Amino acid sequence: MKMTSTLQVGLACMAVALVSASAKGTEPEGRSADCTLERVASMVSPPVNIELAQARAATAATPAYCAISGFIDHGSRIGFTLALPRQWNHKFLFFGVGGFAGVPAPLDSGVARGYATGSTDTGHQGTSVEDATWAFNNSAAILNHYESGVELAATALKELTSAYYGVRPAHAYFQGCSAGGRQALVQAERFPDSFDGVIAEAPAWSYSKLLVTFLENAHEILKSPANWVPPDAFPALDREVLKQCDAKDGLVDGIIENPRACRPDLRKLLCSNSPQAAKAGTCLTSTQVAMLQKLVHPEFAHGRPGYYGYYLTGSERSDLSWGWSEWFFGTLPPLTDAQGKLNFRGDVLPAGPDRGKGPNQFLLGEQFFRYMVMNDPGYDARTFDLGRDGERLQHRLGALLDADTADLGPFVRSGGKLIIWHGWSDPAIPPEMAIELYTRILEHSRQAPGQLSTAQAVRLFMVPGVQHCGGGTGLTEFDPLAAMEQWAEQGQAPDRITAWQRVGGQRMRSRPLCAYPKTPHYRGNGSPDDAANFRCE
Fold it and tell me: What pTM was estimated for this model as a whole?
């Protein structure tokens, strides 16, 4: 998608204002200016505005830094935050924001590594990242959220960083998960010169199809109260899935390396097989088994193209981050409403004790269609119709939503590097979406003569046992930013990344994450808990 003319004008104005302001700086390279509102505000000009500049003392988690916040006028108010450490590593890191944003991402992890670190609310203020009420009658904020807001904020903060330190960052990186992963891909596709390296984590790149899938999944569950699966059933489900699938990779270790290789038979969990489990409420009825099978075989459930596969991997229970219970079913059973129709309890912003009890998929899908697509606060997502409402989605938002250009030729030609990673246990964004994205990029990116091949500039890592953006029982601890630094700065392409599994807060074992489509294989000697004893093939 081409950059909008208003965005082009905004970027040009900011570049002139900030470059001019940067020339005023007299601080030697690597030394920061005074962290005062007056000094920092003098480094920018409209449409960039500074509201706060305050020195923060070092803590156990972060070094001393200058905390800056402000906004950009661009149809709507694009809020931003920036942290400039006293001991700067001469690099810039920008964090994307998940959900519907409305609040910048925390900056501590970037500051702790010495980065000048920034983020944005993407052009609106919300009560939570699940809140889309801001989009009602607000087309300017919607445009900023899906495209302009991130690029404008990133450009302004990179220039402000240069003005503050008196030298430009040597490298600039973008890192974001979920909708933040989509933002990462938008930067690579639509603004290929903005970042040296982009890390797209569980990216919601096919946004329109994803939100439609959320509602379709909910409709399947709401066909009958008997379809609902309670949170208490998931620990037993995890145990059974591991029992059937764990050894498929040659090691029994609580990690299912390749979920595609095993489709567990959930009939083993039928209550008729265990009177004791039936009494405890930890088994499944035949209706519940059928419902789960539909969710892991969505092509059979819906019979329509564009729906991607979820996998049961032994890391579905709800006491670990956001598990299947929170995303698919909600934490309380649905009830019949005043109109006699089945509905989930709670809403994104309800009053009363049921707040947040509905499934995340349905709540996000309803917020999206209610305020962005239909522009109707009274829209009931249970009435969603793919033909009618899907057509409205394309008419109203069109190509703005999806980061599906797939041609990363300009990004690669600019020297950009892209790391994509996705958890195999993700109950929000189906893992197959990442694999399709990677395949499309390799197939559709145009290569100029003498240019690196796309395969030399893009890596995909599928992470066993990890849920949405983190959490789970698998290889939950790894560092894609360190891999990106070695790649962009030293030319060492990451064909494997070491990851750790934690149990009880302690590192229990390590494994390599292998660049897709390779998977780790035990060499047959040495400790199977040490990544060094595995090869990628």
Answer: 0.93
